């Protein structure tokens, strides 16, 4: 099979231990150009563009928020956000807890204060949030007809656990809940995924290609559907057991340039 499109998750997959692109990874991606490499992540676009610039492939599509927002040359191909009535209830349930709520729409990121969680995410993504109360953000979005592409809940594991169970019981038909750690919940609209994002990209940007022409890399639960759908789904060796189980192949860890090594092998 001829692989003509590369899609890769970022954190835990593409980046090294310093959360950066290694020289080896940049070299391999540039070596196989013009085969496009599409970044496909739960990050906001602003947290991904500097990586595109390092690869010198700013013209390839960009998949943010696990498929909630898909861009090509800064033009919106697809956008799906969470209803504001759901956001209002999440804000309500987090009141009088220690849970931090980060709210994202396109390149907007709002936090109620620069606390431990906000600083941690700022360090990880190289993006600085705007300080604005969750209620003020909700009111603004209601007035502007906008909503959250992603909501991040971060805090004490037991409080996060309680919130997760409540949201799962009440809103499972509206939202997807994803726990990358016991102190995190990432929330997105239920109708989006990395697989649906690749479908949109193929239809709009690469109509002569099919899923069989795609090679994809991932490490976590939100990568499973994508890895199963593409022509070759590759897990990095540090991936979760369930991801390793569904992958067609396993490469080295993200810390040991696993994606670069696979690109060298398959291209």
Share of helix, binned: 25-40%
Q: H/E series, N to C?
A: EHEHEEEHEEHEHEHEEHEHEHEH
Name the strands of the widest sheet in spatial order: 5-4-3-2-1-12-13-14
Number of helices: 10
List the helices and strands and how they pair.
Blueprint: E1 5-8, H1 23-32, E2 37-40, H2 49-55, E3 62-64, E4 69-72, E5 75-79, H3 84-94, E6 100-105, E7 108-111, H4 116-125, E8 130-131, H5 134-144, E9 150-154, H6 157-171, E10 175-178, E11 184-189, H7 194-204, E12 214-218, H8 224-229, E13 232-236, H9 241-246, E14 249-251, H10 258-266
Parallel strand pairs: 1-2, 1-12, 2-3, 7-8, 12-13, 13-14
Antiparallel strand pairs: 3-4, 4-5, 6-7, 6-9, 9-11, 10-11
Give a description of the structure.
It is a single chain. This protein is an alpha/beta fold and 267 residues long. The strands form 2 sheets. It has an 8-stranded mixed beta sheet. A 6-stranded mixed beta sheet has the order 8-7-6-9-11-10, with helices on one face. Strand 3 and strand 4 form a beta hairpin.
Keywords:
22% strand; six-stranded mixed sheet; alpha/beta; eight-stranded mixed sheet; 10 helices; 267 residues; 36% helix
At a glance:
This protein is α/β, with parallel strands linked by helices and 267 residues long. It contains ten helices and 14 strands. It is globular.
């Amino acid at each position: 099979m001829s692989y003509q499109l590369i899609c890769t998750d970022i954190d835990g997959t593409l980046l090294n231990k310093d959360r950066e692109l290694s020289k080896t990874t940049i070299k391999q991606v540039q070596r196989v150009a013009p085969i496009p490499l599409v970044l496909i992540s739960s990050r906001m676009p602003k947290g991904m563009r500097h990586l595109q610039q390092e690869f010198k492939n700013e013209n390839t599509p960009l998949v943010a928020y696990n498929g909630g927002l898909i861009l090509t040359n800064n033009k919106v191909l697809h956008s799906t956000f969470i209803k504001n009535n759901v956001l209002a209830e999440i804000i309500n349930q987090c009141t009088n807890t220690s849970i931090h709520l980060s709210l994202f729409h396109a390149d907007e990121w709002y936090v109620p204060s620069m606390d431990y969680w906000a600083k941690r995410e700022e360090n990880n993504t190289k993006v600085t949030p705007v300080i604005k109360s969750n209620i003020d953000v909700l009111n603004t979005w209601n007035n502007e007809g906008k909503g959250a592409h992603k909501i991040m809940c971060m805090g004490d594991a037991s409080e996060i656990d309680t919130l997760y169970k409540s949201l799962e019981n009440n809103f499972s038909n509206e939202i997807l809940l994803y726990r990358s750690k016991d102190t995190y919940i990432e929330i997105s609209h239920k109708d989006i995924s990395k697989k649906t994002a690749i479908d949109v990209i193929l239809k709009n940007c690469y109509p002569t290609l099919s899923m069989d022409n795609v090679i994809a890399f991932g490490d976590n639960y939100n990568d499973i559907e994508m890895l199963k759908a593409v022509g070759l789904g590759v897990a990095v060796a540090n991936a979760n057991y369930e991801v390793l189980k569904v992958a067609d192949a396993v490469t080295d860890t993200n810390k040991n340039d696993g994606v670069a090594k696979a690109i060298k092998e398959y291209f």
